[in-house]
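Example 9 (inverse folding). The structure is encoded as follows.
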């Protein structure tokens, strides 16, 4: 039987008002680190990286940054994700 460790929750609100709650374990996920290291060379990894970080909250973030025409700005998504990372830098 595999035991799962209960993870501490971190939460916050970005400057634009997006409220999020994450398991701290998501920030320490090695697959997230792999995706981050690939994103500059391969921007197609960006959606995977966001999903690894936010899980089911991805749709809420997309709705939060959606403009009046219904489009989701890649730049705004990147700004929000950067702010979340900066707010919760992992301490080793």
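The amino acid assigned to each position is listed next.
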């Amino acid at each position: 039987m595999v035991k799962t460790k209960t993870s501490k929750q971190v939460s916050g609100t970005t400057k634009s008002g997006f409220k999020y709650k994450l398991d701290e374990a998501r920030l320490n996920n090695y697959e997230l680190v792999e995706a981050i290291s690939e994103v500059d060379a391969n921007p197609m990894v960006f959606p995977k990286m966001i999903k690894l970080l936010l899980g089911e909250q991805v749709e809420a973030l997309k709705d939060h940054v959606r403009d009046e025409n219904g489009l989701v700005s890649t730049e705004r998504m990147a700004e929000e994700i950067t702010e979340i990372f900066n707010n919760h830098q992992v301490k080793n």
